[in-house]
Predict the 3D structure of the following.
Amino acid sequence: MQKKYEKVIAWIKSQIESGALAQGNRLPSENLLMEQFQVSRQTVRRALEILTEEGVVEGRRGSGTYVSVNTRRYTGKEIRVEVMLTCVDTYIFPALVRGIESVLSGEGCTMQISVTGNAVEKERMLLKELIRTKSVDGLIAETVKSGLPNPNLELYLKLERMGIPVLFVNSFYRELDIPHVSLDDRQAGYLAARHLAECGHTRIGGIFKSDDGQGHLRYAGYTEALMEREIRVRSEHVIWIDSDELREMEEERAKFLKRLKGCTACVCYNDETAYKLVSILREAGVHVPGDVSVVGIDNSGLAGFCPVPLTSVRNPAEKLGKAAAERMVGCICRQEKMETLEFEPELIMRSSVKVLREI
């Protein structure tokens, strides 16, 4: 016959195995356990002592008893999370992956990475394979060219209908009611443009990506900051580029020099764009920041390595990755609802902006 304290132990272990209690969660109080099982305090404490000896729980003075075991490893269940990114080896992506991996590995989850190359066709192929194989428990995905119509949106919804949760990271599809974790891109564009205006610039150009939603949002923030200060948004000084044109910026230097002629400053879509613009300007004999000030977005390694260290808006990529992974694990293991999170941007000032007149 099962002893009374063994019933308490069995129930707590079953809650851990089901995911109802996870690592770091507090157990019900002694009083609640006594009431639930109609046993004495001594019986409850005996059960908790045994679980503590086994390393399953730990007591914290004045706080209660908490699950200490890594629940995924404890139960033997393999939780597989697909991380689908446009690329993994350049720019901010290593930090993003590092953040995701640190949480998933700590929870005993398996991470598998796939790369779309920012191509709609590759995205479609990967999504269809996930649907066919049903091989993952969750999907963290960076969107592909989210500023353009996308034929793959229904595939994301199909995954959700199959019970596979989806979370977008770094960007999102506005047409889908799926949560995302990203930088507040509109505010990032706003901060960059506001800083230039506060430094006395009134002819402020911009370079933005046309084929992703981040570019549209950063442009919206840029226009908001200029209009707030009654600075004219000159369309002839706003350059829209797609992903291929960004890679080939140096080859089209004449276009950028022509469109930015007369500007004393420029807001760039990201640090890569800003880095390449600085190179174009310097080769043309235009001094940065003496003649043209430049602000980037992301505060990546490129900002510091640029010949003229870039003022840039911080994108906390590693924190962003951690937050995305925490939400996914909570959803899979504890049935927690995933919520959208947009990180507040922060301006990091370096040497690429000239102060003309402080407002």
Summary: The CA atoms of residues 211 and 244 lie 10 Å apart.
